[in-house]
Amino acid sequence: MESNSILSVSSLTQTFTTGDHKLTVLDDVSFSIEKGSMCSIVGPSGSGKTTLVGLCAGLDRPAKGTIILNDINIGKLNEDERAKMRNQHVGFVFQTFQLVPTLTALENVMVPLELRGSSAASTQLKATELLAKVGLSDRLHHYPAQLSGGEQQRVAIARAFINEPDILFADEPTGNLDAETGATIEDLLFELNRDLGTTLVLVTHDLTLANKCERVIELKKGSIYRDEVTTDTVAAKSREQVTPPNQ
Amino acid sequence: MNSFFSSWTWKMAWRDARSNKGRLFIYISAIILGVAAQVAITSFRENIDHTVNSQAKELLGADLEVETNEPYTDQTLAFFDSLGGQQSSVVEFASMAYFPKTGSTRLSNIRALEGGFPFYGELLTQPKNAVEKLRTGNQALVDQTLMTQFNIRIGDSVKIGNVILPIGGAIEKVPGEAAAVSLIGPRIFIPQRLVDSTNLIQPGSRVEYKTYFKFEAGRNMAAVEASLEADHDQRLRYDTVEERKEEIGEAVANLSKFLNLIGFVALLLGGIGVASAIHVYIKRKVDTAAILRCLGSSARQAMNIFLVQALVLGFIGALCGTLLGLGVQFMLPGLFNEFLPVQVDIGISWFAIGLGFLTGTGVSFIFALLPLLTLSKASPLYTLRTFDDSITSLLSTKTKGIIYLLIAITIAGYAVLLTSDWQVGLFFTAGIIIAFGLLLGVARMLMMLIRRFFPTSWPYVWRQGLANLYRPNNQTTALMVSLGLGVLLISTLYFSQNMLMNELQFASREDAPNLIFYDIQPDQNDGVNSIIKRNGARVIQNVPMVTMRIDSLNGVSADSIRNDSTRDVSGWALRREYRSTYRDTLLDSETLLEGEWVGRAPDTGAVPISLAQEIAEDLSAGIGDTLTFDVQGIPVKTYVGSIREVDFQRVQPNFFVLFPSGVLEPAPQIFVTVTRAIDRNQSVQIQQDVVQSYPNISAIDVRLILSTIQSFIDKISFAIEFMALFSIITGLIVLASSVIVSRFQRIRESVLLRTLGASKRQILIITGVEYLFLGLLSALTGLFLSIITAWALSYFYFDISFIPNLWVIVLLTLGLTGLTLLIGLFSSRDIYKKTPLEILRLEGT
Question: Would you call A14 an interface residue with chain B, using a CB distance cutoff of 8 Å?
């Protein structure tokens, strides 16, 4: 693994068996992603994007190949070890928000740190700050059903960042939102990524959004069809903004 | 299990439960009544045991009771003297009591008392000092129920045999006897010194001579018992306080076993309710578990959140059930008072409370286990790809098999614990499993049939409602099993009670005898027959009876056989006093099974007799075996010439041992006469005439007995139905909870239909059709199975015919279907009242 990469995937193959039929969803996929970078994964429906992200984030075990996340070969971890790894290194943002419906916005955001055993006071303080940062100070005690789609996604983003993950996986984060709200969410994601130095892996259909990342990996029929670095990206601009002039 | 105790797990369990209170209450509500039934019955039993122990001596009224069927010999009286202590004696026999004021008669249990019995406890009378009138004056005490029945007051008189006595008081309670005893044979106490004057005790009369002893404290009862076991010149039976305690303990244990099993069915139904409610609840929590796993929780942590909820709720359900059960136990003595020989003191039974908590929590846990375990298999991938399959598909067949086995073992274990009898426990469990299996099978078959023969020409709303019965997430199986089991239990109970009562209605059949006179002396026989004829009735049977005992069987004395443990001969059959008859033909109620019936005894040699099949089995006697009878002091040698089947259900004297003519004619004998009175007035008139002319003759009024049995069965049925009520209400709660928890599965569809333009009426019909069929099919399946069960009971157990009452079937079907429909529509009312968006927001939390 290259020393600067946070995620290294090599010869990754994933197959599903339905009845007598064997379906190869990912076929010999290899790539690596640098720490702090922004990478988008694009491709048509059924190309294997979600499966790839699920495997990279340690949500599933690969049939073949290796995935090294933050120097950890996650294929060798058991389920509990993978859960611990997710809690310490990974953040998620989903298209359908995936908030726990019975928890308030504040409690949803607190969960990752609570799982880690952090003190209640510091966890609540940090969650409150993050919710303020995403503009939801007045929605702390609302349940997901009482929030709009954009607000729910902002809660999900606050939750994704509370454990200061090394890498954030966002699966169609704006897919369920209108254009204006979607743009706000995009800005928020990029801003937090820039401020906290988190690596961002973005799965999307939206090529405009994809091209805002410094690298685009395009999948087709389970294989990498295109893997290229884009110019004039949000990422590049973000770097310019945070890089001191004397460097 | 570490994560189970972590504060985060409990905090998350609370947070999640906060907004699900309604749904979670449904989850626990199903077990509350089951636990309540268990606690009430167990407490009640504990209280009875406690009362029996604390009032042990009052159960017998003495330290010892010695009984025989013959007047005491001098040797026996000397033996009694040697036993010492205080003594009191009772001569007990059945006789007609005649009340001159109203002209009414009733076969009663006459007890001629001498001495201070009861030594322990009190003979409760109204007025309280009436016992003194019995002991010192020539007055009688009459059972309160008898006085009420005939509108007799204190001061009126009663005629027993040739003696007329003023009634000094009403008997309310005799120590150690249940009030229901008076239903069978109303008790009349008279002074013993008047027995001879009654002139009722004659040859052949059945009399029990009892002597009660009160010993000084510390008397060695084992030594007393040993002396009673020793040889005496007459057969002495005895009862001690400890034996009486054991007998009552056994009776109470049997009663509570039976009630416990009925209560247990309520608990099992509750278990199904729990399983069904939590299944739906957990299905909605798979997403939450997947999210939490995504955020870093382990599979066990995610599962433990809901395990904590299940256990805490089970505990709360158990607590509510226990409190309710403790309240209900105050009602049980009222239900069973008449059958209990003691006045039960109600108290707190910690054992019952502990059992209630254990059962409630245990049942909730066991029945929730299957859905809960599925959460440990909820993959974090479900956050990316929606899981929309049956949650149990997440578990392997092996895991499911182990859980089902665990449930079966728990049921069997608990049933064995409740009944203290592994055979009954296992039989009960097997019955429950078979019933479950059948209901499950029928539910599946119905779904398959509806699918296969779907009425495509029906209107859309009807098709939609009907299709809901087999579509994914249907509630057909859960509802049919829970409702069907409830119906099965209740209607089987009803059918059994109904068929027993029908069988007992023999007296109402035309030409069936309904009045029997017995203890008729030979010189009274013609007189009785002419009284019957004079009153316009017909003598249906006039049979001689000779009392005898078995002296030896195949040359071995009855005593030796009894003491030989290797012999498979019933002690009862050897000991009993036989009342046999003689004639030269068999009756149409008798069928020859083996051997040859000889109508006339040969002049010399052993007499060929005919044994009823039942007694031949009890005596292990076959054709050719010899029996020597002691016919009032004269040995009569016989051999088994034939074995016959006797229809003992006929209202007529039936005999275990039948002699041919030509042997017993010279023996001392009494006669039994059977007649039929066309109405109550004729019956009363004949009885009055016979009793006035021949006071020693007793009459059995079959109609009266039937009404007594009817009231007896009614009282028992009421008590049983009270316990069955727990099952019925639990069934209804399970029905309501199944409907409510499954509402979510239908709600999105209804909302979608409304969005697409369906009217409230259409949604109402779709929902209505689904519940209509669910109710109808559950009721019919339960009834069908209960008819099979009742038939099996009638055929294999009661040996009587069973014809199901069509009205009962129709009413039960309509009632249950209507109830299901009502609950279904009521629980889904939000769908028609609120806007689609409102509903989705409400259901979203």
Answer: no
